[in-house]
Design goal:
Serine Threonine Protein Phosphatase 5, Tetratricopeptide repeat, three-stranded antiparallel beta sheet, two-stranded antiparallel sheet, 10 helices
Length: 312
């Protein structure tokens, strides 16, 4: 069933077959078969009708010969994915179902699927108060910042998936930093967060995490200065400080005890929408419950346990 195959979508489309001597990269061919494979990989678990595949591979400029070319590309791709399959044997990897063509591979065989599985597990660890597990899972995964299918970056179905993946990466980044804060690894969080707010100055959650990291690192004045910097960055974009950051500012001035308690997400994280996507949507993973949430202004402990703050 193709369990020896591995696929890459982040950083460029590639495929390998595992072998005793090591992985062997597959020759996927020209633009059309590569686009076909990308569309199928982004729709795992969902068959795609031939007309939809023609639309994805050729767009609005599909020639009259598109259906025949599609069949040729499917035949070629089947030979690449199953080179040892006898001609009389039915395909086992790229199959034709009543609803269309479908790849029978597991999401764990695709880099995006593996990343999303790690985020799902990290979210469960966060909700269960296991910050060390969150950090262990995400420190390597969050570094996976390669562009999704750069050779197809202008394709509509890739743009939609890239946006969903970017949102998942943002959630993973925030989970990682909250885990680090809960473990007392404040300076690591500060370094990452400073770089991130420079890139995304309108992200209030990141400013909040950076302010709390500063506070816990024994830098209460810098924590308040972080809120001022957030206010300035938002004003440059024609926005005002949101209620969560305003409450955090008040808590910082008051040195509220909750600022020194280990935490789950300081601000509501984007929902972990892990339901299977619509056709040509993302490489979905199994559904899970959202991360437990608590806003900054709450006077109740957050999800992760922890010690006292280091501020004066």
């Amino acid at each position: 069933m193709g369990d020896e195959l591995r696929f890459q979508l982040m950083g460029g489309l590639a495929a390998w077959r595992t072998a005793a001597a090591g992985p062997v990269e597959l020759e996927l061919g020209g633009p059309q078969p590569r686009r076909l494979l990308a569309a199928l990989l982004l729709s795992l678990g969902q068959p795609l009708p031939p007309d939809r595949l023609i639309e994805l591979v050729w767009g609005d400029g599909a020639p009259a010969s598109a259906r025949g070319s599609l069949q040729a590309s499917i035949s070629n791709l089947r030979r690449v994915l199953e080179p040892a399959r006898p001609p009389a044997r039915s395909p086992q990897v790229l199959v034709l179902r009543p609803g269309g063509y479908q790849l029978l591979v597991e999401r764990s065989q695709v880099d995006v699927g593996r990343f999303e599985a790690e985020v799902t597990s990290a979210a469960a660890d966060a909700a269960a108060g296991r910050p060390a597990a969150v950090v262990r899972r995400l420190e390597g995964a969050v570094d996976t910042g390669s562009v999704l299918l750069p050779e197809l970056a202008e394709a509509a179905f890739v743009i939609a998936e890239a946006a969903r993946l970017d949102a998942r990466r943002a959630t993973a980044f925030e989970l990682l930093q909250t885990g680090r804060l809960a473990l007392g690894r404040h300076h690591e969080a500060i370094a990452d967060l400073r770089r991130r707010v420079a890139l995304i100055p309108r992200a209030e959650r990141l400013w909040a995490l950076l302010a709390v990291a500063r506070y816990r690192a024994g830098e209460p004045a810098e924590a308040i200065a972080t809120i001022h910097a957030a206010r300035s960055a938002l004003a440059d974009a024609g926005l005002s400080l949101g209620p969560e950051l305003r409450q955090l500012e008040s808590d910082l001035f008051a040195q509220a005890p909750t600022l020194g308690i280990g935490l789950g997400p300081l601000l509501p994280l984007p929902p972990l929408d892990l339901e299977p996507a619509a056709p040509t949507g993302g490489v979905a993973v199994a559904a899970t419950r959202p991360v437990a949430r608590r806003c900054v202004g709450s006077r109740r402990p957050h999800a992760f346990g922890g010690g006292r703050h280091h501020g004066s």
